[in-house]
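It is worth pausing here to work through a concrete case rather than discussing structure prediction in the abstract. The textbook approach is simple: state the sequence, then state the predicted structure, then interpret. We follow exactly that order.
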Amino acid sequence: MIKKLSLYTIALLATIVIFSSCKKEYESVQTIDDTKLADYFAKNNINAIADSAKTGYFYVPTPPAGSTDANNYKLTDSVRYRITVAAFSNGAVFATTPTYRNEGQRVGSPFGFFSKSVPAISQVLKKLNPGASVKIYLPSYLAFGRNGLPSVGIASNEIIVVSITTYKEKQAVLDDALIQAYLKANSITNAVKDASSGIYLQTTTVGTGTEVINLNSLVNFSYVLKSLDGGLNQDASMTNMPKKLIPAFRIMLPKFTKGSKVRMFIPSGLAYGNALVSDSNGGESIPPNSNLDYSVEVLEVTN
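Step two, the predicted structure:
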């Protein structure tokens, strides 16, 4: 006699079949990823290091990592770096740091675009000295899996390569080098560096006003604001006191009078530093560590 199966039993069996199928698929993808990486490393004679926790990612540091080096990054350290996120299959770049800006944050903080891969990135950085570079190979099951990330072009089951270059220089030194590179690339040869602040200044019109600007003066000025990496372009005017503005304006505005037209290339430390500045009106935001290109005309000064 054949017994009838209850609906509960049928549902349970279906669940077991589906779970087993998903598990096999996961194991299959993991095996495929691991085989691709192993073949690639062998073919290209790459000495990739497997993470000590055996979670599945590999990394290749330059210079080679020191496992007990006292100078290695710690989770609480700040790291200044450039990052590129690309596809293993064809090298397509999904995200990269702009040319005239560097990233900066705590080693143990979420890494923006790849926040879900913080364990891998943070763990690898702890094995590096400041100034080192590294490539991290993330199998798809540790990245975006079979869903991928279509919004940026990451396909299903795509292995991801995260390339990171760290800097041992202080942010002010990096800012100065980036500003100089920007000036050279744009053939700007008459910008003079203010020795005390590090701001590069280009004066196009000398003011003729007699009112001396101080930190409490009410200054009306128009401006065009750009970021060196080209992601920002604002054209506006405002009336405010220098003491309520960014440090660069507190330093530079008192050097000018009504009618002055100047262009300032401002290091990030004298702009908004490592803060993300969002536009309350939904406009363009200023990313952390942005060096700024400010063209300013002083329209009125009231003391």
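Step three, interpretation. The two ends are 103 Å apart (CA to CA). Confidence is low (pLDDT under 50) at residues 1-22.
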